[in-house]
Amino acid sequence: MRQFFAAVDAVHLGVLLMYREYRRLPDEGQKEFMRRERRIVELFSAIIEEGNASGAFRCEHPHAAAMNILMAAHTWSLKHWLLTRGLTTEAYTDQQVQLAFRAVNATPD
Hints:
With about 110 residues, the chain is mostly helical. The protein has one domain. It has 5 helices and no strands. The protein has helices at about 1-10, 10-20, 25-55, 60-85, 90-105. Helix 3 (about 25-55) packs across helix 4.
């Protein structure tokens, strides 16, 4: 999750541009954007489901929790201006990791 947040932060202007210009993309561009987001959500969902299976997590809706992770990463790109009152990227990431662990009923290492 931390690596994903760092990767999103590295291209935060591109994320912002994609959200802003999505409607103007040709159909294939929109479909590619949706494929990429689905792939990320599926990856996190699979991790959460694996945690459920091992007993490390107790998450009733892995797909929804995975979607929350994606949106939390994108939120820094979209709304960092609203969140910057003494909040660094690292502190934001730490807070989101803690929230994600609560969502899957686990404790972060």
